[in-house]
Amino acid sequence: MACRFGSVALVAVLGVVVLLSACAKCNGNTDPATMGPLSTVMQRVAKQAQGLLLTGEADPARPDTLPALVLAGDDEAREMLADYQLRAVILRDKDGRPRPVILLCTGDGGHALIERMDCLNSVRKGQHWQARPLPPCQVTFSDPAAACAGN
What letter would DSSP give residue 135? Predict the structure, then answer.
């Protein structure tokens, strides 16, 4: 009987561990070892998004299609970002050119983790995963000139 109880307890503990580790991504895994590589991938994704808009391969009137277009050609990014939500918003610079903001959110879409905007000579970033509590999954950049100032 004791052996059976021990086995049941072990299975229960393992089940809780698996559930907690699976929820780490949906609730905002804020481990620098995870977020560091994701931040690097998001930099590349932001540059690719800007390139798609500059070449006319993406429609600035349809920002909802931009994440899929960017990930279609990038297997590594698609794999790394699979457990998260990727969103895009198109801002306009002072000359009216479209400027995409790419936002990585928790898997449940509840919280922002990383925000990126290509500033043509560098990438502006928001490291939301470092905030306590995690902010909602909303773009914080509103003006390309302000976001890219100092870059």
Answer: P
pLDDT of residue 17 exceeding 70, the answer is no
Cα(111)–Cα(102) distance, integer angstroms: 14
CB count within 10 Å of CB 89 equals 18
For residue 149, the 8-state DSSP code is T
- The pTM is what? 0.78
26 neighbors 107 (Cβ within 8 angstroms): yes
pLDDT digits (tens, 9 = 90+) for 114-141: 999 988 766 667 788 888 899 999 999 8
**3-class DSSP state for residue 124?**
strand
Run of H or E including 115: strand 112-118
CA-based angle 42:43:44, to the nearest 5?
Answer: 90
pLDDT band at 30; cut points 50, 70, 90: confident
Termini Cα distance of the chain: 67
Q: How far apart are CA 62 and CA 40, in angstroms?
A: 25
Sheet containing strand 85-92, strands side by side: 85-92, 98-105, 112-118, 123-126
